[in-house]
Amino acid sequence: MFGDVEDEVMEEETPKQVSQPKMHNNDSSNNEDNRKIVSIFGNQKREDVGKMKVSYVSIIRPKTFEDSRLISDSIKERKVVTFSLEFLGFETGQRVIDFVSGTAYAMDAHLSKITDKVFTSIPSGIGYEDVDTTMEDASGKKSLL
Q: What percent of the chain has pLDDT over 90?
């Protein structure tokens, strides 16, 4: 008696065919949603960033705070950027440094102070050496030569 009921139940519970989800080719050139996503590293893949060679160095002398955007744009393009604050007042120069420091941090770049008013930003993956080449003269004062 129990064997017959189980056989009937087993026959009724046959698995149904489940349709497989369709696979889509996520080619970003044709997908409108993917075109809205932009990498801050440009078109390069993250693993290629460390293999980059420097082919361009920017030297910028900002005259207003608005020029700090030029410096930040160059940092975002992963260029070595040297900038001088000689034409700016103290407060404006401090604002430029704050703005550029944020960009350098976001891009994982190294910001280095060369003199009181000259700074250099070096992208990650670029080797650099900080060597103090000043020499002391006989009186103990430091001089360039």
A: 21
CB 123 within 8 A of CB 78: yes
Q: Are 89 and 118 in contact (CB under 8 A)?
A: no
- Provide the token pair at 51: 């293999």
pTM above 0.70, yes or no: no
User: Which residues are bridge partners to 112 per DSSP?
Assistant: 120
Percentage of the chain modeled with pLDDT above 70: 53
d(CA 127, CA 51): 11
* Residue 50 identity (one-letter amino acid): G
What are the residues whose beta carbons fall under 8 Å from the beta carbon of 56, sequence distance 6 or more?
Answer: 77, 79, 80
Domain at 55-124, CATH class: alpha beta
Rounded alpha-carbon distances, angstroms, from residue 27 to 24, 30, 32, 34: 9, 6, 10, 9
The CA distance from 94 to 80, in Å, is 20
Identify the residue whose tokens are 């009181």: 116
Instruction: Give dist(CA 114, CA 112) in Å, integer.
Output: 6
